[in-house]
Amino acid sequence: MEFEFVCGWCDADCVVWGEPIVSWWTQKYRVDDFECWNCGTTCTPHDPPWTPAD
Ligand SMILES: [Zn+2]
Question: Distances from the Cα of 1 to the Cαs of 10, 34, 40, in angstroms?
Fold first, then answer.
């Protein structure tokens, strides 16, 4: 599943892949640090909840 993050440096919207973590009781995802497509800065995802990207 993909999520939307806003780059902390240039405010660009970044769509980042969230890796599903398989669990019985809840649906969780793990998002690694991502590189902004616009400015190239490596960003660290903020804490959940995240905005799903359509
Ligand atoms: Zn950026």
Answer: 24, 15, 22
